[in-house]
Amino acid sequence: MIDPTEETRWALVAEINSQAAERAELEARYGQVWNTSELANDFDVLEFAAPFAIVKRKADNRVGSLMFQHHPRYYFSFQEDQ
Prior knowledge:
Blueprint: H1 6-18, H2 23-30, E1 33-34, H3 36-42, E2 43-49, E3 52-57, E4 63-69, E5 74-80
Antiparallel strand pairs: 1-5, 2-3, 3-4, 4-5
């Protein structure tokens, strides 16, 4: 199957990971940030399509996406699906 977003997503992966930041810096940019265990507490992960994770928020069953960086692994910028 051809993924028309693959090239764009991998360019974002390279950009995000070349500028990987610590938690405090990510929080200043994006607001709430989750590490892997916090993510598991707050969300069910439905799919990964780096640099995105498609998730369902446990508190209200809302589906959306988070961006993530690989190292250190943090998830951020939750966007609810419209």
